[in-house]
Amino acid sequence: MPRLLFLYLIKRVAVTAAVIQFALCVPVVLSYLLGSLSAAAVRGGLVWPALVGVAPTIAYVALPMAVGVATALEFSRMASEGMIAVLYALRLSVWAVCRPALILASVLVGAGYMLSNFIAPQSAGNMQDVLNVVRNSLNHRMLDPARFYTFESGAKTLYLERWETPDIAVNLFLRQISADTGQEQTVTAARAEFRRNESGVIVALTKGSIQTRSIFSNDVRITNFDQYAMALPMQGSGGLPKRSWRGVFELPAPEFLAQYQVVRSDRRLLAEWTTEAAMRVGVPLLTLGHALLAMALVLAFGNITGRRGTGGSLFIVAIPAAHILFLVALQSLLRADARFAFVLALLLLAEIFYSVFLIGRLNYGPARAGRLPAGGAPAPAGEGYAAPWA
């Protein structure tokens, strides 16, 4: 294939895939963020960490569908405009016509593996940190007035009457229990200013009192103050608060593989690990499988003579249907039993080999498109670049 034509076809498929990828990812990301983050979380500046956390995962999951649909659209356009028939007339084989899309799909498979095994696991923790902040109210700008909040498993209880500014509250109440000292403290203040540092939040209290009571006796001590400062376990300027757990989906590839020896004896944990492994290994490979399937369907069953037919839209719909079916089967079957991984692997290989079979039959069949009779004479009616037999 001429170099200029090769680059043209790659560019057409790549641009279409990029547009479809953007169209798929943006609504999914926005809907996920809107469903996960409250208005208070948006005010607290948690949108960007959440976006960074969820975007890479959605990107590599949507990539196979984008490439498959883009390939189907481009080959359907080429068929309807008679371009494929012209390429056959230029003595190009079926594989030569498919080569630009195959090379692009292969490169994007590598990009998908980079996303699924390195970038997405590193970013997934950000989303879980955001959810941890949202669920435990660990950002002071998310606190609603006239409502009680608990922290550190109920050891601290916080209440504020109203906000004067986003960082200054009026009439604060704080109750905290220390098991180490055996004391219960009740702190009240007329004004409280929340100041972030690298590790958390410092609350500067003005004109208040501290009531200290021993949990082992009835002794009470009351102290008044004009200025007082105390630390709260909230989100600081240095980053989101750390969680006490780490999911398997957050592990980079080497640690993820090493985790197999830990979970292999537990059926439930093994199912979770296998599900994540299928997402990391199988989903990127679908990029090549969907591209092959799109080309095989259009070339084998489409009308390549330039006359428009009704099959083009069906071929385009087949790619999202196959992709969604694989993802649903992956998430439902593998979480039930890890042994279903062999079934999913067979489905993926079946898609690839069936597509290769269809393209190979077109390329080496009796009506090999792109071959003119010896001497270059026009082919008799019915023997030119007729639609390949199916």
TrEMBL record:
<feature type="transmembrane region" description="Helical">
    <location>
        <begin position="94"/>
        <end position="115"/>
    </location>
</feature>
<feature type="transmembrane region" description="Helical">
    <location>
        <begin position="314"/>
        <end position="334"/>
    </location>
</feature>
<feature type="transmembrane region" description="Helical">
    <location>
        <begin position="340"/>
        <end position="359"/>
    </location>
</feature>
<feature type="transmembrane region" description="Helical">
    <location>
        <begin position="281"/>
        <end position="302"/>
    </location>
</feature>
<protein>
    <submittedName>
        <fullName>LptF/LptG family permease</fullName>
    </submittedName>
</protein>
<keyword id="KW-0812">Transmembrane</keyword>
<dbReference type="GO" id="GO:0043190">
    <property type="term" value="C:ATP-binding cassette (ABC) transporter complex"/>
</dbReference>
<feature type="transmembrane region" description="Helical">
    <location>
        <begin position="12"/>
        <end position="34"/>
    </location>
</feature>
<keyword id="KW-1003">Cell membrane</keyword>
<dbReference type="Pfam" id="PF03739">
    <property type="entry name" value="LptF_LptG"/>
</dbReference>
<dbReference type="GO" id="GO:0015920">
    <property type="term" value="P:lipopolysaccharide transport"/>
</dbReference>
<dbReference type="InterPro" id="IPR005495">
    <property type="entry name" value="LptG/LptF_permease"/>
</dbReference>
<keyword id="KW-1133">Transmembrane helix</keyword>
<feature type="transmembrane region" description="Helical">
    <location>
        <begin position="46"/>
        <end position="73"/>
    </location>
</feature>
<keyword id="KW-0472">Membrane</keyword>
